Amino acid sequence: xxxxxxxxxxxxxxxxxxxxxxxxxxxxxxxxxxxxxxxxxxxxxxxxxxxxxxxxxxxxxxxxxxxxxxxxxxxxxxxxxxxxxxxxxxxxxxxxxxxxxxxxxxxxxxxxxxxxxxxxxxxxxxxxxxxxxxxxxxxxxxxxxxxxxxxxxxxxxxxxxxxxxxxxxxxxxxxxxxxxxxxxxxxxxxxxxxxxxxxxxxxxxxxxxxxxxxxxxxxxxxxxxxxxxxxxxxxxxxxxxxxxxxxxxxxxxxxxxxxxxxxxxxxxxxxxxxxxxxxxxxxxxxxxxxxxxxxxxxxxxxxxxxxxxxxxxxxxxxxxxxxxxxxxxxxxxxxxxxxxxxxxxxxxxxxxxxxxxxxxxxxxxxxxxxxx
Length: 372
Fold this sequence. Notes:
The chain is of the alpha/beta class and 372 residues long.
């Protein structure tokens, strides 16, 4: 049996490559970027994501992630602070993805950088360096669709959102106030997430409705000015040094998308190609890693892509639907203020919601993964 080809050397692709290589296969990983680069991501590693990475043999401690034990929900001048039901880490994708890809290579995976996928056909892959035979293709290209295998958003998908990400070095008092927390700031038309990552930096990620962004003139400076109208963000960013030369952006994020099958039985979709959960849940990285584990198991067991996609949808579909419902409810003025008010009145509500939008422990155990 030929070794599988993996398109994308990010979180899902690197994890699948490591799992397959550890099992004695020699997967070929095609990574479009020649050098490590930042990616749009909240960079929040939940306990499930950490368990997946530990099971791969990756030493997270040496990567220097920032510990996170609490969450703050903010709307206008009102905020609610609660402990998380687990210990999380803030770690940049640039550092994590590179460490994971190097780990996969050390286990025996073949890694080719600077090679992009151009089109997918039946058992074939067209690349920037020519055509490859690929009877087993793991598509882990993240937010980048490939011709011949474009994502068809599933029913209930929330469209029309634009995402931004930038790094800041906060003023010392604000960095100390943020330490140990992920902050979710709800504003009209979207929300922002702010959290510490390694090397004393803070990751600011946000999503905003396309219409709201257009009303601001579709410029980052105008959006920044809008953000500092929010009292909490104004306080956090006062005196902050922007580290990113310009923000990373992505348009039309298909929140709620879950691929449930269809297409060639040798084409396995991983990460954002398979399922996209709203960013505020903090579970996107765990779902990407879970998809990599299930896809690698399917390939090793000779199971087709259809069975794999149905299993992944069963494991994460309910959590993604709930997260989309919550995002819809909190988008408008009454919803976001009511949500923060309700969380303040019911102390157990926020940890419970965090648990409800996670990959279920039973699904993790079925995949052979134990979570403390």
